[in-house]
Design a protein that fits this description.
Largest sheet: 7 strands, mixed
Distance between the termini: 60 Å
Pfam families: Flavodoxin_1 (PF00258), ODP (PF19583)
Number of domains: 2
Protein name: Nitric oxide reductase
Strand content: 15-25%
Oligomer: single chain
Number of strands: 23
Keywords: Oxidoreductase
InterPro entries: Flavodoxin/NO_synth, Flavoprotein-like_sf, Metallo-B-lactamas, ODP_dom, RibonucZ/Hydroxyglut_hydro, Rubredoxin-O_OxRdtase
Shape: elongated
GO molecular function: electron transfer activity; FMN binding; metal ion binding; oxidoreductase activity
């Protein structure tokens, strides 16, 4: 296979792969993705940063070798840096070490070293250097600075900063699941990329928000944040202008939200749907933005994306056999998994439901939402089909929820 490396700075190349047809990752829908890896040429050593996923070796190998051709240098990789052990970034690490240079130096966090062995069971015989914040590597005229970044988004994660150029190889942090022919943020609409980055953050990084805040504070206090001129993540576009994505990460990780409410519902005979629409009308009557999701048609990953910057949610499901309609269950597990409370955002919730007789959905949903970090401020449990009085009540409860986020 033939594939060209992309030069992102003098002596620095993107040698990753484009997975055009990938449609799901980490359990949520994506329009394709990239697995980014980078080659850095120093005067004395050449460094390969990160690796790629299964089925992608030929494309990866072709780009690596093309980078050497572009540099006019004899093929030899002296150093492997592994920022994170997850399989989409490490599948061919052992193979590339054996094929490219079995005597190369290898650097990773201690957790990464442990996780590689636990996943592949063939790394214990290698001498891998454990590094953490403060450790540096001179590769000849260039310096790699290692920065521990646990829970962004695994305990083993770290960043590598190419100090002289200010390029931060951030692995999963600051990424997006997109598949495009061009490599830089400047090649595509910024708002589009930030939306994809928001989906990525909401579904993958939210749980690590407390660690993100600490890491951004650390980078600011040490002055390193001012040294970062480019962010090269392991998924999606490379940020030549990192300011917008750093600002957004600061907001998302600190619970900064819009005057916005996400309405989520499922329905059997459309009674709960009628309540959802009426609650939305009440919210809108107070000038608050509404985003609506119907769980028969919509995926929880998109819902999670909008909840990230919403101040409240309205969640509805009919009762079925004394419990919430089961199709809402995937959504509830997802909410519990990401747990937005870690962002510092106190999100209110209104629960609504239609029942045939005994009910039961509201109590279960309330327990689950509170466990996921939401504050349930009100409920509406309706018998069968809502009449005009109930619809008026639903409207008012929507309006009350909207007013609660503006207080």
């Amino acid at each position: 296979m033939k594939a060209k490396a992309v030069k992102i700075a003098d002596g620095v190349y993107w040698v990753g792969v484009i997975h055009w047809h990938s449609r799901t990752f980490h359990g949520y829908g994506i329009p394709g993705t990239t697995y980014n890896a980078y080659l850095v040429f120093g005067e004395e050593k050449t460094v390969l940063i990160d690796n790629v996923y299964r089925g992608m070796f030929e494309q990866f190998d072709a780009r690596v070798k093309d980078a050497f051709e572009q540099e006019g240098k004899e093929f030899k990789i002296d150093v492997f840096v592994q920022n994170h052990s997850e399989m989409d970034h490490s599948t061919f690490l052992r193979q590339t070490i054996e094929e490219y240079n079995p005597d190369a130096e290898i650097y990773a966090s201690q957790n990464c070293i442990n996780f590689l062995e636990a996943q592949y069971h063939n790394f214990s015989d290698l001498e891998i250097n454990a590094v953490a914040t403060g450790d540096e590597l001179d590769i000849g005229g260039r310096t790699l600075k290692f920065i521990s970044a646990p829970m962004l988004h695994w305990p083993d994660s770290m960043f590598t900063l190419l100090a002289e150029e200010g390029i931060l190889f951030s692995n999963d942090a600051f990424g997006q699941h997109v598949a495009h022919s061009k490599r830089f943020d400047e090649d595509y609409d910024t708002q589009y990329l930030l939306r994809e980055a928001q989906k990525y953050y909401a579904n993958l990084v939210t749980l690590g928000s407390p660690m993100l805040r600490m890491k951004l504070d650390e980078l600011t206090n040490t002055g390193l944040i001012n040294d970062i001129k480019m962010i090269a993540p392991c998924h999606g576009q490379i940020w030549k202008n990192p300011a917008p994505i750093v600002e957004k990460y600061s907001e998302w990780g600190s619970g900064v939200c819009k005057d916005k409410i996400t309405v989520i519902y499922d329905t059997m005979h459309h009674s709960t749907e009628k309540l959802a629409y009426q609650i939305a009308e009440g919210i809108m009557s107070e000038g608050v933005e509404v985003v609506m999701y119907f769980m028969q048609e919509d995926g929880p990953d998109d819902v999670i994306t909008d909840i990230l910057d919403s101040k409240a949610i309205a969640l509805g499901a009919p009762t079925m056999m004394n419990k919430p309609f089961p199709r809402i269950g995937n959504m509830m597990y997802w909410l519990d998994c990401v747990n937005f409370k870690g962002t510092g955002s106190e999100k209110n919730a209104l629960i609504f439901s239609s029942k045939g007789w005994g009910g039961g959905a509201v109590a279960k949903l309330q327990n689950d939402l509170e466990a996921a970090g939401f504050t349930v401020t009100d409920t509406l449990d309706v018998l069968f089909v809502p009449d005009e009085d109930v619809m008026a009540e639903a409207f008012e409860k929507g309006a009350e929820l909207a007013r609660s986020i503006k207080e």
